[in-house]
Write a structure and sequence with these properties.
Largest sheet: 8 strands, mixed, barrel
Order of helices and strands: HEEEHHEHHEHHEHEHHEHEEH
Structural class: alpha/beta
Shape: globular
Number of helices: 12
Protein name: Diguanylate cyclase (GGDEF)-like protein/PAS domain S-box-containing protein
Oligomer: single chain
Number of strands: 10
Helix content: 40-55%
Radius of gyration: 21 Å
Strand content: 15-25%
Bound molecules: ligand C2E, magnesium ion
Distance between the termini: 74 Å
Strand order of the largest sheet: 1-2-4-5-6-7-8-9
């Protein structure tokens, strides 16, 4: 009877394990094929000045359009790429593509920063600083027009190594920001120690605004702390004018969110920015 049950279990579990394994391997394989086949794109989401409505920069967000799988959201493949190490290849492509695009905007006389998300593994590469420096050099982009979005986890792992690397990046003249601020483990001590220029308040604290009093308190505290430390503060995930207006009253510097625009292809960006600025000028 034990044997039967064992066999039953075997039959029950084996295909599931195979499916899990196969889909992982398949995803991994398709991800590489997609990279080689040029199926990745960068979309750009505006970062808006809360005082003027001017779009100061854009965040580059990766998009995967697979022949078979369709559109694969970053949440479905970035974690896998981070586990397998393939994020290093993806990250290198993102960095070079974003910098290339930003240099095109710069050549068109458009002062606009581009923010690039940097994964922990990518940041830990021994030659990461050189990769950033050569991307800038190859493109001719003003280093101040490149922003690197780091997660708090980067600061926590091997703090000495991270400090040296961040100082080298800051010396290049690039802007360093902390993404999803408030959700990780970074402390005020980290903000003092590392050459950080900008905080991105995580969307989870913006969602409850303007009604939620806890979110109000947290967001207000982050903004005040950021100002006291002379950091730029940007709110992520702003979807309503009520949220935007409250953030403006709280003296937040910038916002990013569907209220202005989701990420769009570079060819749609000027149109989106024009529309957003037209809307901003209208009395609400
Ligand atoms: P993130 O860096 O925090 O990016 C913001 C995410 O919030 C984006 O999702 C964006 O589309 C979404 N978002 C922006 N405004 C709003 C809003 O008003 N409401 C809502 N509900 N969502 C909003 P996306 O593009 O799906 O990216 C998810 C995450 O994947 C990113 O979070 C980032 O951690 C990662 N990611 C995206 N592109 C890259 C990349 O090129 N490299 C790396 N390493 N990670 C990336
Ligand atoms: Mg980001
Ligand atoms: Mg973020
Ligand atoms: Mg986030």
């Amino acid at each position: 009877r034990v044997k039967e049950r064992g066999r039953g279990n075997f039959r029950f579990y084996q295909p599931q394990m195979n499916v899990a394994l196969l889909s992982r391997m398949k995803m991994e394989h398709r991800m590489r094929q997609a990279m080689e086949g040029g199926r990745f794109r960068l979309y750009y989401q505006p970062q808006v000045c809360l005082n003027t409505g001017v779009v100061l920069g854009v965040e580059a967000l990766i998009r995967w359009f697979d022949v078979e799988l369709g559109s694969v959201p970053p949440g479905n493949f970035i974690p896998l790429a981070e586990e397998s190490g393939y994020i290093v290849t993806i990250g290198a492509w993102v960095l070079n593509e974003a910098v290339r695009q930003a240099a095109v905007w710069q050549a068109q006389g458009c002062a606009r920063t581009v923010s690039v998300n940097v994964s922990s593994l990518q940041f830990q590469q021994a030659d990461f600083v050189e990769r950033v420096a050569s991307a800038l050099q190859n493109s001719g982009l003003d280093p101040a027009s490149l922003e690197l979005e780091l997660t708090e986890s980067i600061l926590v792992q091997d703090a000495d190594e991270a400090l040296a690397r961040l100082q080298a990046l800051a010396a290049l003249g690039v802007v360093l920001s902390i993404d999803d601020f408030g959700t990780g483990y970074s402390s005020l001590a980290y903000l003092k120690k590392f050459p950080i220029h900008k905080l991105k308040i995580d969307r989870s604290f913006i969602r409850g605004l303007p009604a939620d009093e806890s979110d109000q308190a947290i967001v207000s505290a982050i903004i005040q702390m950021g100002r006291a430390l002379k950091l730029t503060v940007i709110a992520e995930g702003v979807e309503t004018t009520a949220q935007r207006d409250l953030l403006q009253r709280m003296h937040c510097d910038q916002y990013q969110g569907f209220l202005c625009s989701p990420g769009v292809p570079s060819e749609d960006l000027e149109n989106v920015i024009g529309l957003a600025m037209g809307r901003y000028a209208e009395p609400s």
